[in-house]
Design brief:
The strands form three sheets. The protein has a two-stranded antiparallel sheet. The chain has a two-stranded antiparallel sheet with strand order 3-4. The protein contains 16 helices and six strands. 15% of the residues are buried. The protein is elongated, with a radius of gyration of 30 Å. It is mainly α.
């Protein structure tokens, strides 16, 4: 018996078939199983239930399939995926050992080249890998990161004396969360005509002056605090972001305006897209490797595009915004007094105030 590519229609039969005729339910189940197994093998990181639902949408309205048939198909899909890759390791040591053995297998190569590299000693693995692949030593001078103490500590432990640059967006969100967490501050902040609200928004401009200017600018803001409610926020700022030995000193988050975006949004966008490739919080290690290989293919395309035809790293809107910031800072420097400072903080703060996302 010969069927079409979609296995839904019999094209030709050969020989005699004396066995009992299959039921409609059995035939429909077999068609669904084969189609789902094929797609499960082609796209190993697509949720099986999604594949099944898509196939069910294409089935006949008078289908005889039942829930047990669907459960059997799902099991067949998982069994098919298990046949694609080696046995799943049960521990970290076993995972490392297995990946070391499989690094030269074709299914784990990227365009015929080795893709998996495992550490062989206790030396700095990233640096050794960079030397091996690029014949250059890995040198990282700055590290863009958000405001998580654990992340800062990990960076310091691994890379030593390195300059940490805080993400301005996350800085604004941290300050905004503090404001909305206090009822008196939240009400004032949401009212554009409220003097306390205007004063709170000026704090967001502190990230756009040099670290050396932050303390003096902070004192100027304190001197014009509209009421005692404002000290709730100013105390939070000075204890966590300004005073000596605080968690996040000004040299991490303050810098004069420039075309440097000072944000981790691009990295977070990548991680969000990467995480969306998996339907389980603990995916199969071989599935992870496969997704990384496919991601590398996309990354290589982008690198080649930039190499042959460099494009704009920022949108025209963002470039214009940065130019306005630079212009405003230049005007402040020309006068450099208390009045010009407060005007500058008000202008910049209103552009970069924290918002709900």
């Amino acid at each position: 018996m010969f069927s079409g590519f979609d296995k839904r229609k019999v094209i030709e039969t050969a020989g005699q078939h004396n066995h009992d005729k299959n039921s409609i339910e059995k035939i429909e189940t077999q068609v669904l199983r084969e189609n789902c197994k094929r797609k499960a093998e082609e796209s190993i990181y697509t949720r099986p239930l999604k594949i099944i639902r898509t196939e069910l949408l294409n089935s006949s309205p008078t289908s005889n399939l039942n829930n047990q048939n669907v459960r059997n198909v799902r099991k067949a899909m998982y069994d098919k995926r298990k046949q694609t890759y080696p046995k799943l390791p049960t521990s970290l040591d076993e995972t490392i050992h297995q990946l070391s053995d499989l690094k030269n297998e074709e299914c784990f190569k990227y365009k015929g080249q080795q893709f998996i590299y495992m550490p062989t000693d206790d030396n700095f693995f990233l640096n050794n890998l960079c030397l091996k692949l690029c014949e250059k030593s890995l040198q990282i001078n700055t590290f863009h990161v958000d405001f998580e103490i654990g992340a800062h500590q990990a960076i310091t432990d691994v890379f030593g004396n390195i300059k940490i640059i805080g993400c301005r967006f996350h800085l604004g969100q941290s300050w905004w969360k503090k404001i909305v967490g206090e009822p008196s501050l939240r009400i004032a902040y949401m009212d554009n005509s409220n003097e306390l609200g205007k004063w709170l928004k000026m704090f967001f401009g502190l990230a756009f002056i040099s670290p050396e200017e932050v303390v003096d600018a902070f004192h100027e803001l304190i001197s014009i605090c509209p009421n005692d409610d404002g000290f709730i926020f100013s105390d939070y700022i000075i204890h966590n972001y300004i005073e000596d030995h605080c968690q996040f000193p000004p040299n991490i988050w303050a810098e004069t305006p420039s075309l440097n975006p000072r944000t981790t949004n691009a990295a977070e966008s990548f991680h969000r897209t990467y995480n969306s490739q998996f339907y389980s919080p603990h995916p199969h290690v071989h599935t992870v490797v496969r997704v990384l290989i496919e991601t590398q293919a996309e990354t290589s395309t982008k690198i080649n595009s930039i190499r042959h035809k460099p494009g704009k790293l920022q949108s025209a809107k963002e470039i214009k915004k940065n130019e306005l910031n630079i212009q405003a800072y230049s005007q402040f420097l020309n006068r450099k007094n208390t009045e010009s400072l407060l005007i500058y903080l008000s202008q910049i703060g209103s552009r970069y105030q924290g918002v709900s996302i």
